[in-house]
Amino acid sequence: MLDILKGPIEAIQDFYDLTSRAFRSVFRKPHYFNDIMLQMDSIGFGSIPIVLLTGFFSGAVMAMQMGRSLQPYGQTGRTGTFVSIILVRELGPVLAAVMVAGRNSSGIASELGSMKVTEQIDAMRALGTDPVQKLVVPRVIATAVMLPVLTVVDDFVGMVGGWILSNYLFGLPTRQYWTNSWQALVWNDVGQGLLKPFIFSFAVSLIGCFYGLRATGGTQGVGRATTQAMVWASITIFILDFFLGKIFVSQVGQ
Amino acid sequence: MMDEASDSKSSLVRFENVTIVFPDGVEALHDVSFEVREGETRILLGAAGSGKTVLLKTALGLSPITSGRVLLFGEDITTKPERELYDVRSKIGMLFQESALFDSMTVAQNVAYPLLNQKAIRMPREKMEPAVRDSLRFVELEHTLERYPSELSGGMRRRVAIARAVVGKPPLLLYDSPTAGLDPITAHTIMALIVKERDVDNTTAIVVTHRYQDGNLVANFRYNPNSGRLDPVMRPDGATGTNTIFMVLREGRLVFEGNQTDLESSTDPYISRFVKRPAKDAA
Question: CATH number of the domain at B38-56+85-276, out of 3.20.20.150, 3.40.50.300, 1.20.1270.360, 3.40.50.720?
Fold first, then answer.
């Protein structure tokens, strides 16, 4: 009976171990700046297309549903308010993180997994480099910097999507939409909107690295690691979002 | 086992009752003890899954030990944290089974990797390039500097990996199945390189293999720097002319340690399985 729990508990312990080693290594020499830049390019810049697409359509679809639900109350004009609050507080951070998790947690896991099963990780250790420092830390830093940036892009593109749709479908004046959107936001929303992706970024990068470095058993193992990384990163993002949302909502004092 | 004080200077690798049990309960090594001295070449024979690779990785401090002690260059590495192992590792060159070249780097970057990252042998950039070139010339692949490992054949990759292992001039080399998965001609080229490395740089080595003819080649041939070929060395008494010792692993246990003559006269069915042919015709 307890044997069933043994695996997951060991995994959590290993994950904790990797996380603490990664955070300690951030402040330790040597620093691999080139690798950080490379990862920023691949994780950040490389994710822009998917973030633009999902951001635009999520904003548009939200405006569509909001406008419709507000119509009976004669409040279609406030569509911008709702779109911006929901985007900045919830949907932007979560969608961007989930998209980046789908693209990069799995990418990281498959890359590190292939390196693991072809003994490149062992070779790295044999040749005087700590894999955590050389492979994990650059990915963690790059994701932590880029995910908040991507979220800002996602939020903005979503608002643009909402504007185009509400303008086209409900004839909402441009000025009214943007004024409402702007006025709806308070500093707490912006703080929450940027802190969330920062925290999610660790789920994205560390879970990817964790499953990659644990991969065993050839190409099949790499495939398994890739899937698990993506699934668990996404799930973790939603769970974290719930708790973070709870903390922030109670902080506003509603 | 030898007296530790008298010979500790020349002892490069020393296993003392090493047992390794994996987290899933599989025993990879069981009470293995041996000592490799300077100038020796060890041929480690054994079936697939007998623990050969684990033994090599343990000798590099890559596998955690369950019980026993491992000493490298007289230094106990058993309980050392990873960070303190880098210095001793820079004295050891390792050829991994599937070469383990870094896919994202060119051949030149791969070979330069130890010189950039191993503190003990780090060198300024202007010295690095000639060292990389020398090392690649040694394996006769000087022309591949800017190519990527994925563009090379299996045998070429293995040669690049040898170049990477020897670029820092380590006194000890570990070869994990250098000929696995290669055709006989390429396999012979790789083994000839291993003999050449031993005789040119006077290095100590452990060679893991499941092919007896690999061990036979190492034991009975020498690199001739004038002709660039391997010449046979046989002593009149029939003993091998090189300092080569054979070891046989069976399911994690060291079941044989001795010279080629003893190996060939062994009547143990498992051991004699590896000695398929008389010594001379393999090369």
Answer: 3.40.50.300
Q: Please say whether the beta carbons of A225 and A215 come within 8 A.
A: yes
* Separation CA B269–CA B198 (nearest Å): 31
Please write the tens of the pLDDT for every residue from A25-36: 888 888 889 999
How many domains, in total, are found in chain A? 1
B28-56 per-position pLDDT tens digit:
999 999 999 988 899 999 888 888 889 99
Name the residue among B82, B94, B100 with its Cβ closest to that of A120.
B100
Q: Measure in Å the smallest separation between the Cα of A126 and chain B Cα atoms.
A: 6
Confidence of residue B276 (pLDDT cuts 50, 70, 90): low
- The amino acid at residue B277 is R
Residue found by looking up tokens 């409402």 in the block: A180
Contacts of A128 in chain B (CB under 8 A): 86, 89-90, 114, 117-119
The answer to whether the peptide bond before residue A30 is cis (omega within 30 degrees of 0) is yes
> What's the pTM value of the predicted model, to 2 decimals?
0.86
CA dist B168 and B203 (Å) reads 12
Q: Give the ipTM.
A: 0.85
